[in-house]
Each structure stands twice: as C-alpha cells, then as structure tokens.
Amino acid sequence: VQLQASGGGLVPPGGSLRVSCAVSGFQLIDYHMSWLRQAPGKGLERVSSIAGGGFTYYLDSVKGRFTISKDNAKNTLYLEMNRLKPEDTALYYCARGWDGPYVFRGQGTLVTVSS
Would you say 92 and 101 are in contact if contact means Cβ atoms under 8 Å apart? Predict the structure, then answer.
C-alpha cells in the first residue's frame, strides 16, 4: 500500500490550491479516505473525508472552502482548497480510513499560506 501526496506550495491568503494523493495497492472505491493536517506545533487534525460511496465530511473551519473528491479510474484523491487562510498552513496527509485509526498514511505535502 502506498499513498503519495503532492501539490503543496506557497500561496497568498485568499488563494487556491489543489493537493492530490495517488494511491496504489488498493482501490479507492473500496475504502473511505481522509485528508489530515498538522500545523506547526499542533496535533494531527482531520480535515475532510470521503466514503467509498461518496458521502463527505468536512471540519467546520473548512466548510464551504475545501472540496474533497476522488477519481476512481485514476485511483487518486484530491482536496481543492479555496479562500485559503494563514491558519490553513500545515503539512497535509492523505490517509485510508474515515475517522481513525489511520493504518495507512502517506507522507505529507506542505501547504503554506502567506503573503
């Protein structure tokens, strides 16, 4: 099982970014998937999840700004992030599972929101 996150970068406040997670070793359609993040000096936080059937969950602070999606044919998970805020700065991880424990988690991709 491998989860490869990518797409992080530096973006100004109010900007947008899409991070991706390429999955191998299992099929996305068979599992719930989540995006987690860890800000500097803080603990791991669940940002968004998508069920195998498409039902979604969002952290209150990202509702209306972030959208989780997946392409089952490409076996890739996405997180579209709009109207980014400095407090969204974190290492973003993709993980297999709904609300934990997350047995499989990829390496993070760094998102920095700063002017």
Answer: no
Provide the 10 A C-beta neighbour count for residue 97. 17
Nearest partner of 68 among 104, 101, 95, judged by Cα: 95
Residues found in the chain:
115
Q: How far apart are CA 41 and CA 82, in angstroms?
A: 24
51-108 pLDDT, tens digit each: 988 899 999 999 999 999 999 999 999 999 999 999 999 999 999 999 989 989 989 9
> How many CA atoms are closer than 13 Å to the CA of 16, on its beta-carbon side?
8
Residue 49 corresponds to which tokens in the numbers above?
A: 């999840």
Residue 107 per-residue DSSP state: B
Do residues 102 and 82 touch, judged by C-beta distance below 8 A? Answer: no
Mean pLDDT of 25-31: 93
The CA-based angle 114-35-40, given to 5 degrees, is 40
CA distance 13 to 113: 6
